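Reopening this one. Same input as before:
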Amino acid sequence: MANPANDIFSRNELYWGAEFQNALKSKHVAVFGLGGVGGYCAECLTRAGVGELTLVDFDEVSQSNINRQIIALHSTAGQKKTNLFEKRLKDINPEIKLNIIDDFYTDEAIKADYAADAIDTMRSKISLLENCVKNKIPVISSMGAGNRMDPTKLYICDIKDVKEKNAPFISNIIYQLKKRGIESGITVVASHEKPFCIEKISQTELLTTNKGEKIEFSKITPSSTPFVSSAAGIFMASYIIQEFKKEHENG
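Same output, byte for byte:
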């Protein structure tokens, strides 16, 4: 084992060993959405030693992101999240391979060993999950970070076992996936906590993808605290690494 003072992954190896640490170098995870959930997920995967990440996000840091997003600071407001994470993750592990997609996800093909879904728009989220199932790409999806403040209420399960199906965002996703013949086979991070928001704020956004496609969508602004989105992202990264570890141990 390398000298713990000189090796950035030496503490990981004290838990799961040098062989698995080396195996993580060949793993590729695609992270969709680099907000409060996806940002923490991407960072933890990098610190774990995953060798390749594809980062997908079209947005810039705003002042309202500062309360919960790891990349959001007064000094980074107005900058592209993908650019900021490219610099940050390379600073953590200079050897990591990063594929940067500064765009709104529609229905593009996915190539990765695992996908982490932290998308907060309904259309893109459903499209991504459907593509993952059809192409047999393992995926874990965030479905319970907004409008909550207690991270101890988070849990991981198959989408068919989500108990709080009455929350509008979750119920709509489950309904739309069911219409497409998908009722199970998607791992999710959900929450037992009842969602709460003092005021409902919604707006219509219009953007143009890199391919020239014009996308119009309604976006509801949820309440968000510093606690749940970060924990959900950490849960997602931990689950992915555990799945890679099981795969490694089973040969």
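So the earlier flakiness isn't reproducible anymore. For the record, The mean pLDDT is 93.
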